[in-house]
Amino acid sequence: MTAVLSAHDVAYAYEGADPVFAGLSLDVAAGRSLALLGPNGVGKTTLLRLLTGGLRPARGEIRLDGSPVSYSRRGLTELRTRVQLVLQDPDDQLFSASVTQDVSFGPVNLGLPADEVRARVVEALAAMEITELADRPTHLLSFGQRKRVAIAGALALRPAVLVLDEPTAGLDPSGVEALLATLADLQAADTTIVASTHDVDLAHRWAQDAAVLAGGRLHTGPAAGLLADEALLHAARLRPAWGPAVGRLLRRHGILPADAPDPRTPADLAATGD
Amino acid sequence: MTAVLSAHDVAYAYEGADPVFAGLSLDVAAGRSLALLGPNGVGKTTLLRLLTGGLRPARGEIRLDGSPVSYSRRGLTELRTRVQLVLQDPDDQLFSASVTQDVSFGPVNLGLPADEVRARVVEALAAMEITELADRPTHLLSFGQRKRVAIAGALALRPAVLVLDEPTAGLDPSGVEALLATLADLQAADTTIVASTHDVDLAHRWAQDAAVLAGGRLHTGPAAGLLADEALLHAARLRPAWGPAVGRLLRRHGILPADAPDPRTPADLAATGD
Amino acid sequence: MLAIDAAAYRSPWRRHHPAAKALLAGGLLGCALVLPPWPGAPVTAAITLAVALGWARVPPRTLLRAARTPLGFALTGSLTFLVTVGPDGLGWADGGVRRAADVVARCTAALLCQLLFAGTTPLADTLPRLTRLGLPVTLVEVAALIYRMLFVVLDTTRRIRDAQAGRLGTRSLRAAWRSLGGLGSAVFIRSFDRARRLEAGLAGRGYTGSLSVAVAEIPLKTRFLATAPLPAALAILTTLTLQSLP
Amino acid sequence: VHIAEGYLPVTHAVAWSAAAAPFIVHGVIRLNRQIQAAPEDKLLLGASGAFCFVLSALKIPSVTGSCSHPTGTGLGAILFRPPIMTVLGTITLLFQALLLAHGGLTTLGANAFSMAVAGPWAGYAAYLLTRRLGLLPAVFAGAFVADLTTYCVTSVQLALAFPDAESGFTGALAKFGGIFAVTQIPLAVSEGLLTVLVVRLLRTSAAADLIRLGVLRKREEVPA
């Protein structure tokens, strides 16, 4: 496993407040999907901001491809062209009048020539399947569309790692389905995906790896195993997911073979045990 | 069944836009909990605002205790002292920097004497279990705390019906648990609860009745039955819930008796079939 | 979010009536402004600092950080006193150092009095009481709304800035300007949008134009009220005593 | 630059408060009238005030590498008219004094006179005089003049309070002007440019608001 991005013994405290955490380490494996879980207020967003250069750790270091990130202008540019953060509320990320203008913000700042900027915008809109929104003013879009534009704005920098803070918040089920499909496509095209959530069902369904923030410590491992650990989830004030609970019950009754994976969605159950 | 609040053949269109719906009817049964389900953009919030007097129907009528609502100042005051709406984003409702001052707004507006206002504030804060926040400034509260203050502001009017738009949006699992417990307490104290959501698992777990908005029509019935109808959920672009799917599978395998209710949470499964 | 504001809500003096705190800090402020700067200003500053740190427990870090900008202003502004502009151009001013020291001392003492009040008295307690001083209700209500919305808008501003930085919006001067223009317009749009949503939210709570609320009573504690003028009295007495010394 | 608490002699603090008072009273009367006519404007005024506060807290980069804050008084005067801006500006100054220790309570009158009265009125006049040259040039002129006026008035206030030992008021004005106003010219240009950038974006994304505020003359100036 190569860690494309990692936090090494990182501590952070906001001004005048107690430390959010004092010494966390996390490796983000290249090409995989990682869910960061924890209750509100535990520091998920802080950790994501540390990983993406928005905050500078008080102690420890963030490493990109194994080398410590430098917080010089050049170092930050390097980090930000490789790692992009998508915020929970798309309105915090859309500040231009039109979709095209907004998506071009990153490439233009990078100083790319106009042709290249245009190509990047077209590519990012296509990846998010919103090519038809290119000329629309951002403020007339629906929430789900604005979310897609915000992600396109990050993709326009062609990041190796896409970090999303609560990407499904505010989306309805079909919006969630569509987003998960898009994330899978991005991952297939070699983008590493990190997403924070407090929805264990979602993480169990979507992520290959998981990291659970509980009591100032980070527990990491493959999602299937880690998210079946009810004691850990309880300690992290999270609700157990249906999938592992159903899988356990079905295996106990011999309906599911002992080595079968847990179901991920209710639809998986339709064919089970027949 | 007595309908404390109902919509009768209600139509509404925003200015310059297509009708959101053309002729919906809904009865809210006194003392029960009703979940209003549908994807984003289908008009859930519009319907809630019609029910609570925030919008006036283009056709049809809203009825309170069986009588049509009058849109005079007096009629609206009557409606709003009986029916209170809590919005999704608490910052859309909290206008004061002080929690106590904010919660007192409704009762003061109603012209109640100072003693009564104070008593109502104390009562509402106690009902939401946030008495200790009374002197805290709004802007230093967490999202979940602000949400509770917003609900307390509605409760201070002692409404017969509490209407909540996406009450669990943005809350983490333990926040959701706490809110559901509080809503159950309110219902036990005779408050009728209506909540919109697009989370079928949540609705299945929490609500006695359900109403699903699909294709401009409203399908209503007891939650247990309605939310097990996968064809309806599919038409409404919602994701089937785990509970009914698991229940169906377990009954098929004889693990659950034919007349047993569907499980509501993964925790329900632990004791199942033993 | 704003350190002085946060300190005010946590202050052990939170339970004291704003008027009593205004009397205490105001008395000291009067001393800082009216007493002869030497030894009046250092005496007042010392007493105010003792009250702020020892009695009112204003966090020293907050006090220090808040004092930096205004002290910077006082120092740079007073540098001009050191020189004089005459017919032959610039020259050193006679007594310029003394004059600068007077002003900086008075300014420091007054600033500490201001921070003593601000660091112990939340605006949420003060604003609704301003109507009792005869200020128009609409003015006070608008001020209270600004105070509430300020934090919502500040929070939005911080997040937009972070998002811009994340997309290399601070990489060059050009990018920084582009970001700033976007930020300014986004904050305007978000503020107005917030106002409209708040209007809809309040309509559901019965808003028809008045934002009257019940203000929690804070009893005027006679003991605190009685001690409130004492620090100022002490400052006056000490100054007079020191002056009468040969 | 806000005059700090205790910096001005008492007589000056009182005199400037008296000078600012009629403008503030006038603004409050206009505010009252506006809210009486349209109660829903109360919330918009709250938002406008919050916007002014945040605007004045932004950092603008300058060529010298140092950072400064815009006064925001020009944009505020253009958007909300000088009388309303006087009220919003004074409230902003009060909050800056109590929340940030920028400016003082006894110097509130002096600061209000420069930032909430002189700056907005001068900026608005410049805006009106240049309005026929087009929206953006007028916005630049308004913001530039408002910013510069604010700092010139502050220099006058300081020079009056601390006349030069030899050359009196004129010498002092030259000194304070040297320190504040002259270094302020690049910053006034910066504020003018920033304001143009903001209004240019608002013209596309918030045209309806600008029309309602009377900044845009109906549809003619709204880009397609």
UniProtKB/TrEMBL annotation, chains A, B:
Subcellular localization(s) per the UniProt record: Cell membrane
Residue ranges of every copy of the ABC transporter domain listed in the record: 5-240
PROSITE patterns membership: ABC_TRANSPORTER_1, ABC_TRANSPORTER_2
Membrane topology category: Peripheral membrane protein
PANTHER family: ENERGY-COUPLING FACTOR TRANSPORTER ATP-BINDING PROTEIN ECFA1, HEAVY METAL TRANSPORTER
Function statement: Probably part of an ABC transporter complex. Responsible for energy coupling to the transport system.
UniProt protein name: ABC transporter ATP-binding protein
Taxonomic source organism: Thermomonospora echinospora
Lineage, highest ranks first: Bacteria, Bacillati, Actinomycetota, Actinomycetes, Streptosporangiales
From TrEMBL, chain C:
Membrane topology type: Multi-pass membrane protein
Bilayer-crossing regions: 69-91, 133-154
UniProt entry tagged with the keyword Mitochondrion: no
Gene Ontology terms describing biological process: cobalt ion transport
Subcellular location: Cell membrane
Transmembrane listed as a keyword: yes
Pfam families from the UniProt entry: CbiQ
Keyword annotations of the record: Cell membrane, Membrane, Transmembrane, Transmembrane helix
GO cellular component terms attached to this protein's record: ATP-binding cassette (ABC) transporter complex
Name of the protein this chain belongs to: Cobalt/nickel transport system permease protein
Species the sequence originates in: Thermomonospora echinospora
Source organism phylogeny: Bacteria, Bacillati, Actinomycetota, Actinomycetes, Streptosporangiales
